[in-house]
Amino acid sequence: xxxxxxxxxxxxxxxxxxxxxxxxxxxxxxxxxxxxxxxxxxxxxxxxxxxxxxxxxxxxxxxxxxxxxxxxxxxxxxxxxxxxxxxxxxxxxxxxxxxxxxxxxxxxxxxxxxxxxxxxxxxxxxxxxxxxxxxxxxxxxxxxxxxxxxxxxxxxxxxxxxxxxxxxxxxxxxxxxxxxxxxxxxxxxxxxxxxxxxxxxxxxxxxxxxxxxxxxxxxxxxxxxxxxxxxxxxxxxxxxxxxxxxxxxxxxxxxxxxxxxxxxxxxxxxxxxxxxxxxxxxxxxxxxxxxxxxxxxxxxxxxxxxxxxxxxxxxxxxxxxxxxxxxxxxxxxxxxxxxxxxxxxxxxxxxxxxxxxxxxxxxxxxxxxxxxxxxxxxxxxxxxxxxxxxxxxxxxxxxxxxxxxxxxxxxxxxxxxxxxxxxxxxxxxxxxxxxxxxxxxxxxxxxxxxxxxxxxxxxxxxxxxxxxxxxxxxxxxxxxxxxxxxxxxxxxxxxxxxxxxxxxxxxxxxxxxxxxxxxxxxxxxxxxxxxxxx
Length: 534
Fold this sequence. Notes:
Layout: H1 2-13, H2 15-18, H3 29-46, H4 48-61, H5 67-95, H6 100-105, H7 110-144, H8 148-180, H9 186-206, H10 208-217, H11 219-229, H12 231-240, H13 244-274, H14 294-307, H15 310-332, H16 334-347, H17 351-367, H18 384-389, H19 394-423, H20 428-455, H21 465-469, H22 472-490, H23 492-495, H24 501-532
């Protein structure tokens, strides 16, 4: 039974690779292998930056005889990335999976259900933490040429670190589940906490070079503090260099924490998954109902769905925070940016014409992260019949999904384009062209994302993270957004000698407007037919 549950858990995690999301039929072995090869290539690209980091740290610390500190630092980064990458899936996948009630109603011990769920958390933790740890140990093998015993220990530590990360993410998911039941507006609280994590993450990335410089100036003192205040991480560093005592301590403590975590979770698992909410029920107050149009009612429905789901908001609305942050950061650093631009205008005369296109590309890249319409059909799930049964035209249903995407992203995109243009002293035509291009690309992403959702829906998910985070539609739409952005910004270099940036921008405005009209026309005709056949 446990083996079946674990297999089911991993099939759900990678369902999009094994099953055609539209037909529900298993994919052929060739397609499955191809998809996993593509996934492996994507992971290799994702780990490239950590290879560079490991090479940089290794060349300094390993040569200086501070191997343990090298592994301690890379281990901490591995743990942080593993926790950061998998924690957002843990709450929804462990405690809020749609089939929890079904499994609990079966003659299956809850401890086995929990163990199967935790195995999925372990898999994701291994996936994310290995992105850092594997480059770290490979680079160490290159620099230090250790014996076979050390190599085996380093490989084993890959799984021990993943287990430790799983403990952290399970604890965080458990705390979120306990708190979520007592919060009235828990979606926005979860979103705020997640954005705080993202802010800290990008702050560290932004300050990384200065951190590295400070680190190299005080490497020995930092090493002594790690030994004193982070002894557990110090033991990880010792273990990775082949010291048996460090391996025993780090592995033993990790296993002990995992056992304690599992015991605590098993005692509260049933209570948490069966607790829907503990807030006071709203008191009915009689008031006159207001009539609204079908379009307004459908848009309100889509808005409520979006704002009530923190996973949806976080993964399909993160670009909003970036767009609003850009003009603020440029305004703060205006004294450094403007002189560089003035120097660039002198050396590269076409730069002034190109700046609105560069600004368009920057904002459009962030818009490509906000794929609100792409999973919206799939998120209807088995309740699709409800929206199909409403007294509304099918096109109005589809239109409301595109409209929500457009409106949610349009305000921050226009504010970002206009404010950034003002800070960078763009001309009025340049700002207007940027705003128009950004708006049309926003509509393209919304309409094209919905088309992918209609043609390749996943209506049989058990966790909303599947259509939101584990869908090939999301990846395809993100890539399409980047391709269009690259075309708008990159093709200018082919015509810059005989065409001004203003004329080039106007041509793209016309082309994108026609493309958007064609996409909306498809939704109104073929899209409606495909939607009604789901």
